[in-house]
Design a protein that fits this description.
The protein is of the alpha/beta class and about 575 residues long. The strands form 9 sheets. Strands 1-4-5-12-11-10-7-6-13-25 form a 10-stranded mixed sheet. A 5-stranded parallel sheet has the order 15-22-16-17-18. It is globular, with a radius of gyration of 28 Å. The N and C termini lie far apart (about 60 Å).
Length: about 575
Amino acid sequence: MRIFSFFERSARSFQQNRNYSTFLVIFAVSGGGLVAYSESKSSHGVYNVEPSQVDAKKKKVVVLGTGWAGTTFLRNLDSSLYDVQVVSPRNYFAFTPLLPSVTCGTVEARSVVEPIRRICEKKSGNIQFWEAECIKIDPASNKVLCRSNLNANSEQNKEFFVDYDYLVVAMGARVNTFNTPGVTENCHFLKELEDAQKIRRSIMDCFEKASLPNLSEEERKRQLHFVIVGGGPTGVEFAAALHDFVRDDLVRLYPMLKDLVKITVVEAGDQILSMFDKRIGSFAVDKFQRDGIDVKTGYMVVSVSDKAISMKLRSGETISVPYGMAVWSTGIGTRPIIMEFMKQIGQTNRRVLATDEWLRVEGCDGVYALGDCASIQQRKVMEDISAIFKLADKDKSGTLTVAEFQDVIDDICERYPQVELYLKAKQMRNAADLLNLSTGNDKDGSKELDIAGFKQALAPVDSQMKILPATAQVAAQQGVYLAKCFNQMKERELDPEGPPRFRGTGRHRFRPFRYRHLGQFAPLGGEQTAAQLPGDWISIGHSSQWLWYSVYASKQVSWRTRMLVISDWGRRFIFGRDSSCI
């Protein structure tokens, strides 16, 4: 009776509050325990999601996004330690490296997706997921404003707030059109699963239109001209996949059209696959030329209409090229929600969110950002050169010996990865070689270096600072790293494992994030793939294609998707690709 009286008094008190109009309490008493959950609705129609009593003592972690970064973080997080809530406009994770295969029916769309709720089901602890879009981040009050994407009725479209103690921003990026007129209206993108499905239908529509009896020869050629704007990995892989689809499957279904099909890759730079070794770019161009794929380098698209693409050459001449389908794959841009958030925290002059080496958003406590929406702002050695010198000068003599510098070089390399990169680039064995540039040959390590000489020795080091590429590999590694930090949060408060604080006392709680490049692939069609692996190892051919199969199968997030993808590959070998317009 006391419990019921308590809830009666609470309900009366709550209803008297002018800011709220509804109050719901669900409770159960079992073995002396009480479970309660509440939802509240403000007078402005915005719901507030409040934590359950069971997890009231746990820190609330809100994850925005279910892409590579967000999903990898979620899969590796010990969710029993936190009250985890996930917000995303899509309720699945998509294996994006296989999207070019989806466009041509090599792999089915459902084979490369894993429902987020299935991932949450396998985790310990209670993980809540809302299929909604974050429309505003409020770091001052530790809230995010979300809006449901479901258009069933007006009540379900109400906005709601979600409180957080830790916010993980992993919202990815959007396609960068460079404000080119007509791109959004007339071009396909290849960023999401829905994009791949639209391209697949559009390819078949072009062939079906071209086969109609009332079209002229010029109109048939236009319908069967496929233009890919962007010579990066996605554009090149799609061009190769489309060529294989046409050569292996569609020419048998549309024999009268086989001589009219044309595929063109347009690149504004000097070569395609510029992020790969030049040998791979040259091989790709040669192979495309043998396959009949037209590669246009040095062409910049200035506008796109519904039937033609206008391109500008370096000579200043502008040409118009008719097309049937165009795919725009020229890089990524910042989402509007991220741009608005950057304005709030004073990062207006940047392309993406700036984080430190621990993936913490600069200027925001408890906010982390990873994946394509953020970039690590690596601290420069020269900014802390005096503090480094002071820490290394243990005898306070005002000079450094090579031996003294050797004692702190490991901590310096861990805090400033550009030091290690510089040593490798200059083929130096250790820090002694670096200081010898200023002290001369110092075999016994007795020569000493003052602050001016120390600055001179380390001045070129910051030239090795690099911005990490916006790839799935980087996002996945960041997700694993951040989840590990969250799992060890309490432990590292007492026993920090990071490098010393050169400006301050003690050590950092965690080691900074270090990206480890595991290699990259560029499928070129005809069961041939170019692979660039660590150690400057280049492999091009059929053996690399089988390595590509093995790696992509092993990287699937579940055995279900792994078996589906492998079975799709087997089906394609036996029966060919599906050409249905569905």
